[in-house]
Amino acid sequence: MRGRRKTVKISEAEWSIMKVLWDGCEESGRGMTLGEIVASLAESTGWSNTTIRTLIIRLAEKGAVEIDKSTGVYKYTPKTSKSECVKDEVDSFVKRVFDNSVYNLMASLVRGGSLTEKERADIIEILKDMDD
């Protein structure tokens, strides 16, 4: 029997780094350099190389990022998938805010009127498919 994987808690700033890594590594098929990560975030965040490097190190310490030191230039790759991190974040949010009730989350979204007709129809189809 496999053990439950470790949940990685990622801060809002760390999410910015992870999004760049998920997109950049998927697109290129390899790890990203610090320079590539900085270039992706410079305009939107204004963070310095040092700030970004610190966030990457924290992510590595948490087990979310792998650092390849085998070449002269370090390469950074995500060790956890975006879907795993999103699931962990949603689970944490539902537990904290909705007393661990997915029903209460869904009811809040539906009653809040923030869903389009198409989104509502899509959700209904997803729920119908659960019965199959």
Fold and architecture overview:
The protein is mainly alpha-helical and 132 residues long. It is built from 6 helices and 2 strands; from the N terminus they run αααββααα. It has a two-stranded antiparallel ribbon with strand order 1-2. A hairpin with a 6-residue loop joins strand 1 (65-68) and strand 2 (75-78). The longest helix has 17 residues, at 12-28. The mean pLDDT is 89.
- On the 0 to 100 scale, the average pLDDT is 89
Order of helices and strands: HHHEEHHH
Coarse structural class? mainly alpha
The percent range for helix content is 55-70%
How many beta-strand elements?
2
Low-confidence blocks of residues: none
Major sheet details = 2 strands, antiparallel
Strand percentage, roughly?
A: 5-15%
Report the principal-axis shape: elongated
Distance between the termini: 27 Å
Strand order of the largest sheet: 1-2
Q: Report the total helices.
A: 6
> Radius of gyration, rounded?
18 Å
What's the structural blueprint in terms of helices and strands?
Layout: H1 12-28, H2 34-45, H3 49-62, E1 65-68, E2 75-78, H4 82-97, H5 102-111, H6 117-130
Antiparallel strand pairs: 1-2
Key structural traits:
mainly alpha; two-stranded antiparallel ribbon
Would you summarize the structure shown here?
This protein has 132 residues and is mostly helical.
